[in-house]
From TrEMBL:
Family: Belongs to the protein kinase superfamily.
Name assigned to this protein: Serine/threonine-protein kinase HT1-like
InterPro entries: Kinase-like_dom_sf, Prot_kinase_dom, Protein_kinase_ATP_BS, Ser-Thr/Tyr_kinase_cat_dom, Ser/Thr_kinase_AS, Ser/Thr_Kinases-Pseudokinases
Metal-binding in keyword set: no
Catalytic activity: L-seryl-[protein] + ATP = O-phospho-L-seryl-[protein] + ADP + H(+); L-threonyl-[protein] + ATP = O-phospho-L-threonyl-[protein] + ADP + H(+)
UniProt GO MF annotations: ATP binding; protein serine/threonine kinase activity
Sequence positions that bind ATP: 57
Length: 352
């Protein structure tokens, strides 16, 4: 896009040069995750330990075009925002293969944290602190017109000291400006807002109207889970939970929640999306609850939200794959990487 080299471009892929990864400085280690469209490896970029996501090109011309377009969209969103509660985007490149590089996380998913804590629940001030991290990440995304659409404990990662939560896995994230004609892709029904799938059973490719308030509903389910450390819609399958929420207006019981938090949760999962609060309002309500139970604790600093950088790449194989967790020795993957000792990294050029 011009001789000043400010942007890297190939077909529909445009990236500011400061986010362009130089494959010569990229080294790949053991595979740590795999999804339908990509594999994630522990790796090193220059001197930094990172997570390297290698996106498959597809095995038919149609799939190749679709994946290239999806990759371009992912990277465009990744480079838009930064926040301390969003997984850090480091860079990307399209040649010789499509690659997205992010920070490597070590604290585990919120799902695993909660499971390890059961049958106990976390302290209420800790639960509210985690909820504030999540709400601030969502406020930042919404301020940039981005809807996550798949907010759930599996997509929330703890820092190594278990004091900070970061939002990841933007496989279903979309810009709100295009949701009026958005395909009916699905996240995880148990946490999804009913308007994403209710009224009419949508076939793949059909269109559905909704807005950013779908994330507010999901946040309510996550907050309920944070406080009580129980699976929402316990005893139901994901599809049964979706049917109960959409067609019977059923919600988890808020009886055992503190009164102010019960009010917050039930307002966030209201059937009418327009009556749900936004994340700025949610943050204020959470801060009031935190002040009530921990009046002497310092106020958590305000959000930091800038106009560039950071988010987990869409179509992620899952947050587990961003954590430094090994499943045996470095695993070969369809010729993409040689089996290696855990401590070794191989030049990226050997991975395609």
């Amino acid at each position: 896009m011009g001789s000043d080299n400010r942007f890297y471009s190939t077909d529909e892929f445009y990236l500011d040069a400061k986010w362009l990864i130089d494959p010569r400085h990229l080294f790949v280690g053991p595979k740590i995750g795999e999804g339908a469209h990509a594999k994630v490896y522990e790796g090193k970029y220059k001197t930094q330990i990172v997570a390297i996501k290698i996106v498959g090109k597809g095995d038919t011309p149609e799939r190749m075009v679709r994946r290239a377009a999806r990759f371009a969209r992912e990277v465009a969103m990744l480079s838009k925002v930064q926040h301390k509660n969003l997984v850090k985007f480091i860079g990307a490149c399209k040649e010789p293969v499509m690659v997205i590089v992010t920070e490597l996380l070590t604290g585990g998913t919120l799902r695993k944290y909660l499971l390890n804590l059961r049958p106990m629940s976390m302290k209420l001030n800790v639960a509210i602190g985690f909820a504030l991290d999540i709400a601030r990440a969502m406020e930042c995304l919404h301020s940039h017109g981005i809807i996550h659409r798949d907010l759930k404990p599996e997509n929330l990662i703890l820092s190594a000291d278990h004091k900070t939560v970061k939002l990841a896995d933007f496989g279903l994230a979309r810009e709100e400006s295009v949701t009026e004609m958005m395909t009916a892709e699905t996240g995880t029904y148990r946490w999804m807002a009913p308007e994403l799938y209710s009224t009419v059973t949508l076939k793949h490719g059909d269109k559905k109207h909704y807005n950013h308030k779908v994330d507010v509903y999901s946040f309510a389910i996550v907050l309920w889970e944070l406080i009580l450390n129980r699976l929402p819609f316990e005893g139901m399958s994901n599809l049964q939970a979706a049917y109960a929420a959409a067609f019977k207006n059923m919600r988890p019981s808020a009886e055992n929640l503190p009164e102010d938090l019960a009010l917050l949760v039930t307002s966030c999962w209201r059937e009418d999306p327009n009556t749900r609060p936004n994340f700025s309002q949610i943050i204020q309500m959470l801060l009031q609850s935190l002040a009530r139970i921990s009046p002497r604790e310092p106020v958590i600093p305000p959000r930091i939200c800038a106009s560039e950088n950071v988010m987990m790449p869409p179509e992620s194989p899952g947050t587990d794959s961003l954590m430094a967790v090994r499943h045996g020795s470095g695993e070969a993957s369809h010729g993409m990487i040689e089996e290696t000792p855990k401590s070794s990294f191989f030049c990226f050029n050997k991975c395609y």
